[in-house]
Design a protein that fits this description.
alpha/beta; 7-stranded mixed sheet; 3-stranded mixed sheet; globular; disordered N terminus
Length: about 375
């Protein structure tokens, strides 16, 4: 049994970095599985590598689309996640443990077994048209990315934006994908009504690090291009320097903010690395395989921000950490934001425009009538 703080593997069994477009190196069982899968070797060194795991898509038969949030760490109370799992494969993704609820691994399963919600737009129309609904900003990209690669073909996020636009319901988006620019026609129109805001998450400007750490997200320069395209279209746009990982990418914070400002970003935010549940071992494994020369230093610095552990779950601490390193990161961020003139304006998206369009209102009345008739039968 591995003790807390010990490496996941002995030195002679550390997995080698993969170059198959995936972030995780393993597919360990989730915390809910009775049987546990472990990595081992039979001593054979085979030259032929296994083919890279393929992405599979499964329909998600959810009956609701709006998820509610009560965390004091985030500024929204409702969100939409068109997908479960994310093909971007970011090794640090805090959403990975949610795949365990599906009986899947937070490792490779999370980035290869994607569940999609084909009825998202229909479900959203019904929820927004309900007399019980109270309008507020809907957040997208708070768990998995709404613009991950499969969105190019499925267009579920685009269908959701059309519904939100029809209802005049504001939306805030966070993404790592240049694909968001495909929907500038909708987002630009919503922005004219003060109904849309987008943040691009830029973790590093180093293409090699981005390729290893976020293998199927857009390259850093493409994310900056997306910021420019959105800004040019009149869409309020910001940058998230998140997560900042001490000893790995934190030295880039100011440069990222500068490049994003040059591209047209007017707002910025940041968080420090979070390693809840299975992510601790996945990140440890990735770090030792991809950046072995700095692995111990990075893990030590993370513990210094987390009271000696690799993660703190407490509200108020989990997003920013504590101690001198976390305080320095916060001070650097605030100094850069002030110098660059960011966050001077806080966009207050308009909730007063909300209105149920006539087709949706008629459909709701018809559905209620049909339900009453069914009860009489």
């Amino acid at each position: 049994m591995k003790k807390p703080g010990e490496p996941l593997y002995p030195d002679d069994e550390i997995p080698q970095p993969q170059h198959n477009g995936r972030g995780a190196l393993s597919n360990a069982s989730s915390r809910y599985d009775d049987e546990k899968k472990i990595r081992t070797t039979d001593g054979w060194d085979l030259e032929d590598e296994l083919p890279p795991p393929r992405t599979t898509l499964t329909k998600d038969a959810t009956r609701t689309i709006l998820a509610r949030n009560t965390s004091p760490d985030v500024p929204f109370d409702r969100s939409i996640n068109p997908y479960r799992g994310c093909e971007h494969g970011c090794i640090y993704c805090f959403a990975r443990p949610t795949h365990a609820y599906l009986g899947l691994s937070p490792g490779l399963d999370f980035e290869t077994k994607i569940l999609f919600k084909p009825d998202a737009a229909t479900l959203l129309t019904a929820e927004l048209a309900s007399p019980k609904y109270r309008p507020d900003v809907v957040a997208m990209g708070t768990n998995t990315d709404p613009y991950q690669p499969v969105e190019r073909d499925l267009k579920i996020t685009r269908s959701i934006l059309r519904v939100l636009s029809d209802f005049n319901n504001p939306v805030g988006i966070v993404t790592k994908n240049h694909l968001v620019t495909r929907d500038i026609d909708i987002l630009g129109d919503m922005a004219k009504r003060n109904l849309a805001e987008v943040f691009l998450s830029v973790t590093t400007l180093d293409k090699a690090l981005a390729r290893d750490m976020e293998p199927r997200a857009s390259a850093p320069h493409r994310r900056l291009d997306a910021i420019k395209a959105l800004a040019d279209a009149g869409v309020p746009v910001g940058v998230m320097t998140a997560p900042m990982i001490p000893g790995l990418n934190d030295h880039e914070m100011e440069a990222i903010l500068e490049k994003a400002t040059e591209a047209g970003a007017t707002r910025a935010g940041f968080t420090v690395l979070r390693l809840p549940l299975e992510i601790k071992d996945l990140f440890d494994e990735w770090l030792r395989a991809n950046r072995p020369d700095r692995a111990e230093k990075v893990l030590s610095l993370i513990r210094q921000m987390r009271g000696g552990a690799l993660y703190q779950a407490e509200f108020g601490l989990r997003m920013k950490g504590e101690g001198p390193i976390a305080q320095l990161l916060g001070a650097r961020f605030q100094a850069a934001v002030k110098r660059l003139g960011l966050n001077k304006i806080r966009y207050r998206l308009d909730t007063l425009r909300f209105a149920v369009p006539e087709p949706a209102r008629t459909a709701l009345v018809d559905a209620k009538r049909d339900a009453r008739q069914m009860k009489l039968l």
